[in-house]
Amino acid sequence: MSSQAINSSVTLATRPFSMDKLNGGQKLAIHYFTVAMILFIAQLLFGLLAGMQYLMPDFLYNTLDFNVNRMVHINAMIVWMLYGFIGSIYWFLEDESGVEIVGLKLGKIAFWVLTVAVTIVVLVYLLVQTGSGTERSIWLINEGREYIEAPRWADIGIVAVMLVFFYNVAATFSKGKWSGIAGVLTLDLIALAGLYIAGMFYTTNISVDQYWWWWVIHLWVEATWEVLVGCIMAWSLMTLLGVRRKIVQTWLYIEVALMFGSGILGLGHHYFWIGTPEYWLTIGGFFSALEPIPLVAMVVHSIYDSGVHHFKTRNHPAFAWIIAHAFGNFFGAGVWGFMHTLPQINLYTHGTQWSASHGHLAFFGAYATINIAFFYLAVQKMRDDCWMGGNMPDNGWKWKAAMVLLNLGVVGMTVALLIAGYEQSFIERAVEGSSWGGYFAAQSHPWFIQAMTWRMVFGVMTFIGGILLFWDLLTIGKTEPRTAEVASQ
Ligand code: HEM
Ligand code: HEM
Ligand SMILES: [Fe+2]
User: Fold this and answer.
1) Cα 170 to Cα 173: distance, rounded to the nearest angstrom
2) Taking the model in full, what pTM does it have?
3) Which of 484, 487, 486 has its CA nearest to residue 21?
4) Is it the case that residue 99 has pLDDT exceeding 60?
5) Separation of 13 CA from ligand 3 center, angstroms?
6) Residue 355 near ligand 2, beta carbon < 6 Å
7) How many CB atoms neighbour CB 397 within 10 A?
8) Ligand 2 pocket check for 73: Cβ under 6 Å
C-alpha cells in the first residue's frame, strides 16, 4: 500500500533538467559530458562494425573498411575520454578553488572550436578516408598514428584548446586557493599536454617514429591519465562519501609517487621489438612489472574510505562506478598488463589479440568507469539535487542493468579476446615460429573464429548496456520526489 502511494505521487511530480544550481564551470562541463556520451555510443557502434569484419571480411568492403572502422572506434574512445576528463575538471574547479573560473568565456569558445574540429575530422575519416602518400594527407586527412590519428591542422587546434583549458585551471587556482589536489592536477596537465607534442613529428624511420609515439600513448595511459584519475577519484571520494581531505591527499601523494616511479621507465615494455637497444628488455621488464603496485594502492584506498564511511552516499550509481573504476583499473591495467609485460612472455604475445584483450579491459576499467561516475554526479545536480541513493522509483533498474550489461559485456569480450590471443601465441608463434604461414594458420583456426564470435555476442551486450546508460542518464531522478538533503537525514 505505502509503495503504491509513493508510486502514484511519483508520477505526478517530475523534475525537469535545470541548470539553476550549476556554477559556470559545471554548465560548461555539461556540454563536455554530452559530447562525450555521444562519442561513447559512436565508439561502440564502430567497434561492432570492426568486430563483424573479423567474422565476415566482405562486410562493408570498399565502403567502410576495417582500418577506417577501427580508427574511428579507438579515436572516438580517446576523444570522449578526454572530453569526460576536461568536463570533470571544469565540474569541480570552482568548488575546489573557491572562486569563479578565470577566463570562462574563452573556455566556452574553446569547447565549440574543439567540437567543430572533431566533427570535421570524423566526417573526413568517414567520407574521404584515404589520400596520396604525401604531406598533404598528413595535414588534411590523418597522421597515421594509432589512437591519435587527427590530421595536423586539428592537432594544432587541439593544442590551442588545451592551452585555454590549462589557463582556466591554473589561473583559477592561482586566484583562489591551491589545494594538494589542485597542485598535483596542474602539474599533471602540463605533462599531459606536453607529451601530446611528442606525437606530432614526422619521420620516415619507423623505429624513431614508434619511439616517440609511445611517449604519448604509454606515458598518457600509464602515467598522466592515471594521475589525473587519481585526482578525480580523490575529489569524488570527498564529495560522495565525505572523506576527510587530509586522508585523500595523503593517498594521492603516495599513488602519484608510485605511479611515476614505475610508469615512466615502464615505457620500456614497448621498446622490446622496435629496434631500440637491448637494455630496454631489462629496464622495461623490471619497471613495468612494478606498475600494478600503485593500482593496488588505489583499490585499498577506495575500499578503506568506503568502509570507514559505511558506504553511505546519496548517489549510488556514481559510487558504484567509482568502485568499478578501482577494480577495473587494477584488473585491466594491473593484472592484464602484467600478464604480458615480461619480455620472455611478450615475445609470444606481442601484437596478438592478447594485447586487444588487455586494451579493452584497461581502457574500460580505468577510464570509462570514472567518466560515467561523473556523468551521474552531473545529472543528479541537474535534477535539482534529487536523491539517488536506495529505494529510487523503479528500483533504479536502468542504472543497475546498464552497469551489469556494460561490465559483463566488456569482461566477456576480454575473455574471448584472451582465448584468441592464447591460440595465436601458441599456433602462430610457438608452433609455426612466427612465420607468414603461421599467421594465417592461427587466424583461420576454429578456436580463433569461435573466440571472435563470442566477442561479438558480448560486444552486442556492451552496446545494449551503452544505450541503456544513455537512456538512464536522460531520465534518472525525473520522478524522484525526495531531494538528497531531505532523504539522507
Ligand atoms: C589504464 C592503464 C592502461 C591502459 C589504458 C592500457 C592500454 C593498452 C593498449 C590499448 C595497448 C595496445 C597498444 C597497441 O595498440 O599496440 C597496450 C599494450 C600493452 N600494455 Fe597496457 N595499458 C595500461 C596499463 C598497463 C600496465 C600497468 C601494464 C603492465 C603492468 C601494461 C602492459 C602492456 C604491454 C606489455 C603492452 C604491449 C602489448 C604488445 O606487446 O602487443 N599496460 N596497453
Ligand atoms: C561494442 C563493443 C565493442 C566491440 C565489438 C569492439 C571491437 C573492437 C575491434 C574489432 C577492434 C580492433 C581490434 C584489432 O585490431 O584486432 C577494437 C579495438 C579496440 N577497442 Fe574495441 N570494441 C568494443 C568496445 C570497446 C570498449 C567499450 C572499449 C574501451 C572503453 C574499447 C577499446 C578498444 C581499444 C583500446 C582497441 C585497440 C586495441 C589494440 O590495439 O590492441 N572497445 N575493438
Ligand atoms: Fe605501456
Assistant:
1) 5
2) 0.96
3) 484
4) yes
5) 50
6) yes
7) 12
8) yes
- Average pLDDT over every residue of 83-88: 98
DSSP-derived letter for residue 142 is -
C-alpha cell at 389: 541513493
Whether residue 11 is predicted with pLDDT greater than 60 in this model: the reply is: no
Distance 223 CA to ligand 3 centre (A): 9
- Confidence check: pLDDT of 9 > 50: no
Decide: 355 in ligand 1 pocket, CB within 6 A.
Answer: yes
- Cα 418 to middle of ligand 1, angstroms: 14
- Quick check: 108 and 168 in contact, CB under 8 A? no
What pLDDT shows up at residue 2? 42
Question: Collapsing DSSP states into helix, strand and coil, what is residue 391?
Answer: coil
State if residue 291 touches ligand 1 by the CB under 6 angstroms criterion. yes
**Amino acid in the structure at residue 439:** Y
Phi, psi (degrees; rounded to nearest 5) at 391: 55, 45
pLDDT bin (cut points 50, 70, 90) of residue 186 is very high
Mutual angle of helices 316-328 and 397-424, in 10-degree steps: 10
What torsion do the CA atoms of 354, 355, 360, 365 make, to the nearest 10 degrees?
100
pLDDT in tens, 384-419: 999 999 888 889 999 999 999 999 999 999 999 999
Percent of the residues in the chain that have a pLDDT greater than 90, as a whole number: 88
Distance 258 CA to ligand 1 centre (A): 18
Q: Give residues with Cβ within 8 angstroms of 359, minimum separation 6.
A: none
Whether ligand 2 lies within 6 angstroms of the CB of 217 is answered as no
Q: CA dihedral defined by 55, 59, 61, 65, rounded to 10 degrees?
A: -70
* Neighbouring residues of the ion ligand 3, judged by CB less than 5 Å: 218, 222
